Amino acid sequence: MANFKNIFRFTEWWMNASSATFGTILGIVLTVGITYWQQMENQKEMTRKIAKITLHNIDVRINSLKNSCELLMKKDSIYGKLQSYMSDKLDNLPKDSLSQCIHLLFYGDYGTHDTKSEEIFSSSFEVWQFLDDEKVIGRISNCYSFLEMNEKFVKDIEQQLTQYAFNTSAKIMTENTKYDELKAANYYLKNPDVMTAYLKIN
């Protein structure tokens, strides 16, 4: 009888110990599983946010590029108009009109764009792991490549025109006691490098 009680107690102890162990293991498994699931969901959400930021950044840069191109086209139009007055009709333009034209031609566009989004998109592990649509990744990459190529082209022209405008202003100021728009216009319009830059715009 005593042996039976001992066996019963041992069995009861073993079941309690097994239940406690099983409960502990189950708790660990559930904790690890839930934590992993939460991490996966957080990474997916981060991927969605990065994708949204990336697409927004592309839109902003496209609009910025459009604005820069529109400004260059305005300059090109004014440049062509002033060229049509060369060389004996330029002084017939009203002084205010000539001044406005020169001001716009000499205006420098110093706009910048954010490259952080592109860097995050290119280097983010989450994007490459969870954004499984290769076509989307390819299109976004192509957009950035296209933007960089065109931004560089536009920026090079803007820098050239800004430099020519600065050189013109510096020359006029060193030769005259006050700024003379007519002389500045003549010097600027006769510069073959300026004409080459505007031909690139066309």
Structure description:
- With 202 residues, the protein is mainly α.
- The chain is 84% helix and 0% strand.
- The chain is built from 7 helices and no strands.
- It has helices at 2-85, 95-105, 116-123, 125-130, 134-175, 181-189, 192-201.
- Helix 5 (134-175) packs antiparallel against helix 7.
- The longest helix is centred in the N-terminal third of the chain and has 84 residues, at 2-85.
- It is rod-shaped and about 100 Å long.
What is the element string, with H for helices and E for strands?
HHHHHHH
Number of helices: 7
Unreliable stretches covering 5 or more consecutive residues = none
Tell how many strands the DSSP assignment holds: 0
Which percent band covers the strand fraction? under 5%
Radius of gyration: 35 Å
How would you characterize the largest beta sheet? Answer: none
Mean pLDDT: 78
Structural class: mainly alpha
Q: What gap, in angstroms, lies between the N and C termini?
A: 108 Å
Form type: rod-shaped
Give the proportion of residues in helices: over 70%
Output the keywords:
rod-shaped; 202 residues; mainly alpha; 7 helices
Write the layout of secondary structure elements.
Blueprint: H1 2-85, H2 95-105, H3 116-123, H4 125-130, H5 134-175, H6 181-189, H7 192-201
Concise description?
With 202 residues, this protein is mainly alpha-helical.
